[in-house]
Specification:
The chain has 575 residues and is of the alpha/beta class. The chain has three domains: 110 residues, Glucose Oxidase, domain 1 (3-Layer(bba) Sandwich), CATH 3.50.30.10; 107 residues, PtsI, HPr-binding domain (Enzyme I, Chain A, domain 2, Orthogonal Bundle); 310 residues, Phosphoenolpyruvate-binding domains (TIM Barrel), CATH 3.20.20. Helix content is 48%, strand content 14%. The chain starts with a strand and ends with a helix.
Length: 575
C-alpha cells in the first residue's frame, strides 16, 4: 500500500524513480587514545590539503554548470577551511592532550560551532552550518574514509537525505538523478536554490522520510505540490506519468513565448527581466526570453576574489553583459556587501544585527574609493550597451545625493581622459526599507528609477529575521503590511514620473502576478527559469480586473486571507 508524505515544493517538476538513501558513514572516534603528536599534525595537514583540493574541484564544476554566483558558496567554504585560528586551536589540542587528529578536529569544530550557533548574528550562525559540512569532510579525509559520491548513481535515482549541503547538490549527476527529497530545509536553502538552477525537482522539509524508505524503493516526487508517494500503485504511477507529461508539455509551450513581449489582454506592456550574479548566467537569461536584466548582483565579483577587483576587471565583467544583451536594459547594483555577505579581504565589524548595520551603500559611502572605482567601470561599460546603475539599502535622501556627487566626479574624470560613456546614464535605487516605501514620492524625485527588493523589504517591514528558524513562518510577503509598502512604492514612483520594477523573489511568484500587475508594476525581474510562466500569466490577464483584485486584497487582514482570494482569482483566470 502506498504512503503519502507532505513536504515543501522547493524546485518544480515531477519525477518517478528509485530511492538512494544518502546517509554518511558513522565514524567512531576514540578521544582517549594517546597518539604521536608529529604524526597527527601531519595527518591533520594532509586531510586539510585533500579537502581543499576536493572543494576546488566542486567549485570549478559548479561555476561551469551553475555560474559564478553559485560557485561563490565554495569560496566561503575554502576560507573557513583555511581559518588559521581554528587550525591552531586543533593543533593545540593534539599537542596538549596527545589525542588523534580526528578527535582534536571533532572537538575543535564542535566547540567553535556551538559558540557560533548560539549567536544572534545570522551570518555567523550560517558559518556554523557551513563549518560542520567542511569539518565532516576534513575528518573523513584525515581518517581515510571515502566520502559518498552523488556523481555516479544509477539512472532514475531519487536522492533521499536528512539534508543536502551545497557541495552535495553540486556533485549530483544530472544524467541519472531525477529528483531529491530532504527531511529539513526550506525554499531559500542553498540546496533548494541550486536545485532550481539545475531545474531538478525537489521536495524538502518532509520530516522523517529517511526512516520510512530504503534504497531501491520506488517513489513519486510531485514538486509542484510538495507531495511524495512511497511505494506507489500502478494506477498512481500512470496518473503521475500523465501529470509529468502535461507539465513537460506546458514547459515546451512556454518556450514559444521566448521572443514575445509581456503584454496583458487589455494591451498593457510590462518588462519581463532576469536577475543574474555573473556573465555566465546570460545564456539562461536569453534562453528563457528575458527582455532585460533587472538585477546584476555585482557582489559576487567581489566575493570571488582575494582582493578588491580592479576597475579594468569590473569593466570587463559589466561590458560582457551589456554587449550580450544587445541594447536591452542591464540594471547593475553597486556592491552590496554586509548583512549575510562578507569579503575575506575586508574586515567588517562583528555586529549583533548585521542586516541593520554597516552594509551596502553605507560601506561604499564611508569608503568612497570602492564606489568610485565601481562607478568608473560602470560608466566605461555603458558605452557598450544600455547600463543603468542601482544603489542598494537606501534609507536617506542624502545617501542618494552623496552617491550622485561621486558619480558626477567620475564623469568629469573620464571626460578629461577622453573616455566614452553614456552621459545620461540612469541612477536608481532599491526600495528595501520602509523609510523609502512610505516616502516614495520624495525619493523618486531624486532618481531615475526604482526597483523593489522584496526579500529585505519584507524582513524590515515585519521585523522578522528571515534566517531565524524560530520565526521564519512569520516571514510572508503576502502580509497586507508588506503589500501596502509595495503599493505605496509603486504609487510614489508614478507620481514622480519614474518607472518601478521588482527584483525580489516575489516577482517570480506566479501567484503574485495579478497583484503586482494590478498595482501598476512596470517590470518583473526574477530567476531566468521563472520568466516564461510569469510572461504567460501577464498575457492571460486583464489589468483592469487585476486592479479590482488589488482593492479586495488590500481589505484583508492576514496573509492566508490574501492568498485565498488570489488563488481563487488565478483559478478563474486559468493561471
Amino acid at each position: 500500500m502506498s504512503k503519502l508524505i507532505k513536504g515543501i515544493d522547493a524546485s518544480p517538476g515531477i519525477a518517478i524513480g528509485k530511492v538512494f538513501l544518502y546517509q554518511e558513514t558513522k565514524l567512531v572516534i576514540d578521544s582517549k587514545m594517546k597518539c604521536d603528536v608529529e604524526c597527527e599534525e601531519k595527518r591533520l595537514l594532509e586531510g586539510r590539503d585533500k579537502s581543499k583540493e576536493q572543494l576546488l574541484k566542486i567549485r570549478n564544476k559548479t561555476a561551469q554548470t551553475l555560474g559564478e554566483d553559485k560557485a561563490a558558496i565554495f569560496d566561503g567554504h575554502i576560507t573557513l577551511l583555511e581559518d588559521e585560528d581554528l587550525f591552531d586551536e586543533v593543533v593545540d589540542l593534539i599537542e596538549s592532550e596527545h589525542i588523534s587528529a580526528e578527535a582534536a578536529l571533532q572537538q575543535g569544530i564542535d566547540e567553535y560551532c556551538d559558540m557560533l550557533s548560539h549567536l544572534e548574528d545570522e551570518y555567523l550562525r550560517e558559518r556554523a552550518a557551513d563549518l560542520r559540512d567542511i569539518g565532516k569532510r576534513w575528518i573523513y579525509n584525515v581518517a581515510g574514509v571515502e566520502i559518498l559520491d552523488l556523481g555516479s548513481l544509477p539512472p532514475d535515482t531519487v536522492v533521499v537525505a536528512k539534508d543536502l549541503t551545497p557541495s552535495d547538490t553540486a556533485q549530483v549527476d544530472l544524467d541519472n538523478v531525477v529528483a531529491f527529497i530532504t527531511e529539513i530545509g526550506g525554499k531559500t536553502a542553498h540546496s533548494s536554490i541550486m536545485a532550481r538552477s539545475l531545474e531538478l525537482p525537489a521536495v524538502v522539509g518532509t520530516g522523517n522520510i529517511c526512516s520510512l524508505v530504503k534504497t531501491g524503493q520506488t517513489v513519486i516526487v510531485d514538486a509542484l505540490t510538495g507531495d511524495v508517494i512511497i511505494d506507489p500503485t500502478e494506477d498512481e504511477i500512470k496518473k503521475y506519468n500523465d501529470k509529468k507529461q502535461a507539465y513537460l508539455d506546458e514547459k515546451e509551450l512556454l518556450k514559444q513565448l521566448k521572443d514575445k513581449e509581456a503584454i496583458s489582454k487589455d494591451g498593457v506592456k510590462v518588462g519581463a527581466w532576469a536577475n543574474i550574479g555573473s556573465p555566465k548566467d546570460i545564456d539562461g537569461v536569453l534562453r528563457n526570453g528575458a527582455q532585460g536584466i533587472g538585477l546584476y548582483r555585482t557582489e559576487f565579483l567581489f566575493m570571488n576574489n582575494d582582493r578588491f577587483p580592479t576597475e579594468d576587471e569590473q569593466f570587463e565583467a559589466y561590458k560582457i553583459v551589456a554587449e550580450k544583451m544587445q541594447g536591452k536594459p542591464v540594471t547593475i547594483r553597486t556592491m552590496d556587501i554586509g548583512g549575510d555577505k562578507s569579503l575575506p579581504y575586508m574586515e567588517l565589524p562583528k555586529e549583533e544585527n548585521p542586516f541593520l548595520g554597516w552594509r551596502a551603500i553605507r560601506v561604499c559611502l564611508d569608503r568612497p574609493e570602492i564606489l568610485k572605482t565601481q562607478f568608473r567601470a560602470l560608466l566605461r561599460a555603458s558605452a557598450f550597451g544600455h547600463i543603468k546603475i542601482m544603489l542598494p539599502m537606501i534609507m536617506d535622501i542624502n545617501e542618494i545625493r552623496r552617491a550622485r556627487k561621486l558619480l558626477e566626479e567620475c564623469k568629469a574624470e573620464l571626460r578629461e581622459e577622453g573616455a566614452k560613456f553614456d552621459k545620461n546614464i540612469a541612477l536608481g535605487i532599491m526600495v528595501e526599507t520602509p523609510a523609502v516605501a512610505f516616502r516614495a514620492k520624495y525619493f523618486a524625485e531624486e532618481v531615475d528609477f526604482f526597483s523593489i527588493g522584496t526579500n529585505d523589504l519584507t524582513q524590515y517591514t515585519l521585523a522578522v529575521d528571515r534566517g531565524n528558524e524560530n520565526i521564519s513562518h512569520l516571514y510572508n510577503t503576502y502580509n497586507p503590511a508588506v503589500l501596502e509598502a509595495i503599493r505605496l512604492a509603486i504609487q510614489g514612483a508614478h507620481e514622480a514620473g519614474i518607472t518601478i520594477s521588482m527584483c525580489g523573489e516575489f516577482a517570480g511568484d506566479a501567484n503574485a502576478t495579478p497583484i503586482l500587475l494590478g498595482m501598476g508594476l512596470d517590470a518583473f525581474s526574477m530567476s531566468a527559469i521563472s520568466i516564461p510562466k510569469v510572461k504567460k500569466n501577464i498575457m492571460s490577464l486583464d489589468k483592469k480586473k487585476c486592479e479590482i483584485l488589488v482593492e479586495e486584497v488590500m481589505k484583508q487582514t492576514t496573509p492566508d486571507d490574501v492568498l485565498k482570494i488570489v488563488k481563487k482569482f488565478n483559478e478563474e483566470n486559468s493561471l
